[in-house]
Specification:
The protein is an alpha/beta fold. It has helices at about 40-50, 120-135, 150-160, 175-180, 215-220, 240-245, 260-275, 275-280, 300-305; strands spanning about 1-5, 15-20, 30-40, 65-70, 85-90, 95-100, 105, 140-145, 165-170, 185-190, 200-205, 220-230, 250-255, 290-295, 315.
Length: about 325
Amino acid sequence: MRAVVITEFGGPEALRWQEVPDPRPDQDEVVIEVAASAVNRADVLQRRGFYEPPPGVPRYPGLEVSGTVVEVGTDVEQFTPGDEVCALLAGGGYAEKVAVPWQQVMPVPEGVPLLLAAGLPEVACTVWSNVFMLARLRKGETLLVHGGASGIGTFAVQLAKALGSRVVTTVGSAEKARRLIELGADEVIDYREEDFAEKVQADVILDIIGASYLSRNIQTLRTGGRLVIIGLQGGSKAEIDLGALLAKRASVHGTALRSRPVEEKGVIVRSVVQNVWPLVSAGAVRPVVYAEVPMEQAAEAHRMLESGEHVGKILLVR
């Protein structure tokens, strides 16, 4: 089969469409013939040499796919060849086929085309596990989402709004602000012109920036607030005012999805299917797709992501 291989660490030109060995399923895995994958910032970091895949995972990138089951391991009873599915991966999604533990495989939500389903696993599992399972955002509370135009941001805005929360997000352009309002955001703050810490008080913050936003995030939290950091685009080291944190009885969580054990991912996946998929099927939450790019042109898709102009997900289609 063919896959997008990182030939050397560096720019998008390091991505090449090459022959690689076909995957074979372990006893608890399924093999999926990939219809589409999606580009995530973690893929860019891996291409640059800053984000090694876990041991035993294919070296080519890709954290989510949609497609059709073509083979199952001896211990798998939950899926059979011919099932249309989407899956959360630890890597290897930029390929014609991928083997994945069955616990990380999900049925495609009713009403969602197979290709578009490739843009759901990573954002749905990330948002649900962090905002709702960990931070326990409740109806009527305020969620602040940084990077609202990203795949994670567009999904978080819709899901929190559908479940009854007030949603505020930060973006970097008037056009992105307009799109986020259309998706349900109650307030959009242009970080180039306004300081979010002076504009909003939040119960939960979903943050992809990290160090450069830390002090302002804590300033923004209400008493009992929860800050969840899932990215480090603004650096990894910062001082924290513990006095401010204690005074607010607030909490700071740092999490990552890719490195979690299969069993933990399975718990998240099952919870997503139970709690999120019905909202997707009903149209209350939908995948936001910026572009569909042929998989063999993954380098162009990476350039598109790094330009920062996109709103939503960039898909790699077969």
